[in-house]
Structures are given as C-alpha cells and as structure tokens.
Write a structure and sequence with these properties.
With 368 residues, the chain is of the alpha/beta class. It folds into 2 domains: 200 residues, FAD/NAD(P)-binding domain (3-Layer(bba) Sandwich); 108 residues, FAD/NAD(P)-binding domain. It is built from 8 helices and 16 strands. The chain starts with a strand and ends in a 16-residue tail after the last helix.
C-alpha cells in the first residue's frame, strides 16, 4: 500500500473543503484535499436536472472569488459545480479526486487516513465531507410492492426515471415541493407531509431580496452558538425542514398536485396515510432528507447523540482534528454557501497555529 506523509489532510472537496484549502494555500501550508468524486463539483452535478440554488449568486461565492453570474440570479446546479471546479483550478488547490476515505484513526503519533490502495499520515486533519451525506429512507419503504418504482431525491434527475402512472412524493419541504411540481407535468402527483410554511414574499422579487438580506444576517450573526436564541432554535432550524422558498402553496395546487397527510404505513404493498387512506402509487419519490454518517471515523470524539463534540469545528479532545461544514457548527448558515467560508477561515487559522504534541518544547529546568 502506498503511504504518503502530509502536514494536513482535508477530507472532502466540496465547498467546505475548497474554502479551507483556499485559506491554507494563502498561509503557505503543505496540504492535500481528498475527494471521493471523480470530478470536482460532482456532488452538485448529481442533483436533479432542473435544480437551481435558492440563494442568489451574490451569496454563493467562496472566499477570494465572486460567483460569475448576475448578483440576484439563481445559478443552476451545474453552474455551481463548474464554479467549484474552476475555483480549485484558479487557486491551484491540490485536490486528489477519486480518493474515497474509508477510515480515519490515530496511531499515537499522527493521524492515519486510509483509502483503497492508499494511506496518508498527517499531523492535522480537517473533515469537510459535508453535514449529511447518506439518503434517509423510512423502513416502511421495504414493504412496498416490488413493482413500485422508488427513488430518493438524491437519485432523482427527472420524470423520465419513473414509470407511467401516479407518483407519491413523500416529504413536503423544498425538494419535495419542487420535484412534485415538476412531475405534475407528466404524472398524477400526491405530495405527502405536513405544511412547513412559506416565505411571505415572492422569491426573487424586490421584497424577496430584502427578506434574503434579513435572513442571511439572522442566520449568520444572530442564530449562533454564542446567543441564547441561537442555542435554543438554531439546531432545529439547521436540521429541520425550512419553509418553502421558491414556491407557494398556491403554486403547488395550481400545478395539479394533491396535498395529502403523512405516510404512516403500508397495506398490501401500498402506502397508507395518516387518515387511513391507501394510495395506489406506481412511483414513490422519497424527499426525506439525508442523515449524518461518521462511522468511518475511528476516534473517541462523539457525544451521546452521535455527533462530533467540538468548539466551532475544533476538536479539543483530539488535537489536530477539525470539522468544517457541520450543521449548526457555529451558525444556522454553517453548512451552506453563505456561511461556510467564515468557519473555514477560523479553522484554517487554528491549523496554522497548531504545534504537534511531539514537537512541543520541553519546559526549561532551573539548575541549582
């Protein structure tokens, strides 16, 4: 197995990892960014074809380079992917693609980062692999009739993936709403789940721009781990369903989508709703979110809730280990483009000032 010695390993080549890389490069640090994807930006390219970002381009930039689009436009997912790829090239960031990290451990002297056929030894490691990366699908999905086509939102690209007939979209947040409206052009569609609310103004309008500014300020500077209100509501806002941003309830109804209660079970291979109605669905699209998976980290850093214990991304119990891009790492915006740059800058500063324990100078001894 090939072994490589590096000062710092950044795990993850998405927006969090690239933002960290930008700051490390400016400090002249020796580092490498490991990304499982074959191409920078692929995590965006794999999203559904019609997806556009909810935040305007002026807030979608990483440190050092504005997003190359009109400030109040909403980039496509492919434009975002291409921006990330160009960003890495522009700042000559040392990204190694196709390196899927399988285990992170410590041998008592340094960190060991293991990937197929490769091993990296490092004094410091920044985990920037994303807040949530594993599709979350309820257990009852396995009870549905085998003839029902099932896709998670992370696998969905467009209507052509589904068979003819009805579609049940489970999850009424932003992804579920947008996918259900798209599918309504070619299929009868039910949208299951509670109403999550909606912005009071039209997305992209002049009042909408004002609301975006306010929400960005609140999410970045008010709803943080340092404020009482942030500690109270921040974790829920960062991990729960957000109000509908681009669509309104009337838009969903106008598209012909039928709103139904949540799915609670399966009867004779078909989904059962909270009101005991049984739907004869030919397709099901699970817009039920993603879950965190750090099972590959073999270090004693997790709390009773399974989440990494850290101080704004710095793991004090294991010197040299950091996180960037966690949900509510510091603020509600920590795991999204408008907020990841600030956390990346702070963690990079910690990396720059770090001294490996083995290199710590011994205290002077006074001679009698």
């Amino acid at each position: 197995m090939e072994t490589e010695r590096v000062d710092t390993v950044v795990i993850g080549g998405g927006q969090a990892g690239l933002a960290v890389g930008y700051h490390l490069a400016r400090q002249g640090k020796q580092f490498v960014i490991l990304d499982a994807n074959e191409r920078i930006g692929d995590s965006w390219r794999r999203r559904w074809d019609s997806l556009r970002l909810f935040t305007p381009a002026r807030y979608d930039a990483l440190p050092g380079w504005r997003f190359p689009a009109p400030a109040w436009s909403f980039p496509t997912k492919d434009e975002m992917a291409d921006y990330l790829e160009a960003y890495a090239a522009r700042f000559e960031l040392p990204v190694r693609n196709g390196v899927a990290v399988q285990r992170l451990s410590h041998d008592g002297e340094r960190f060991i980062v293991a990937a197929p056929g490769r091993r990296f030894e490092a004094d410091q490691v920044v985990v920037a692999s994303g807040a949530n990366g594993v599709p979350r699908v309820p257990g009852l999905a396995a009870q549905l009739d085998p003839g029902v086509v099932q896709l998670h939102a992370g696998e969905y690209h467009g209507p052509s993936q589904l068979r003819d007939g009805s579609v049940l979209v489970v999850g009424a947040g932003n992804s579920g709403a947008e996918i259900s409206v798209e599918l309504a052009g070619s299929h009868p569609v039910w949208l299951a789940g509670p109403n999550v609310g909606e912005l009071p103004v039209r997305h992209g309008s002049a009042p909408g721009r004002f609301v975006v500014r306010v929400l960005r300020f609140l999410g970045t500077h008010v709803l943080t781990v340092r404020t009482p209100i942030g500690r109270k509501v921040g974790p829920h806002l960062a991990t729960g369903a957000t109000p509908l941003i681009r669509l309104k309830s009337k838009d969903i109804a106008a598209a012909g989508v039928e709103r139904v209660p949540r799915v609670v079970g399966v009867r004779e291979g078909q989904p059962v709703l909270e009101d005991e109605r049984v739907l004869e669905a030919d397709n099901v699209v699970w817009c039920t979110g993603f879950r965190q998976d750090f099972s590959w980290i073999d270090l004693p850093i997790f709390g009773a809730d399974g989440r990494p214990e850290h101080d704004r991304g710095v793991v004090r119990s294991v010197p040299g280990l950091y996180f960037v891009g966690l949900a509510f790492q510091y603020a509600v915006t920590s795991d999204v483009l408008p907020g990841v740059g600030r956390d990346a800058k702070r963690v990079a500063r910690e990396v720059a000032h770090f001294t490996p324990p083995a290199q710590t100078a011994e205290p002077a001894v006074a001679l009698a």
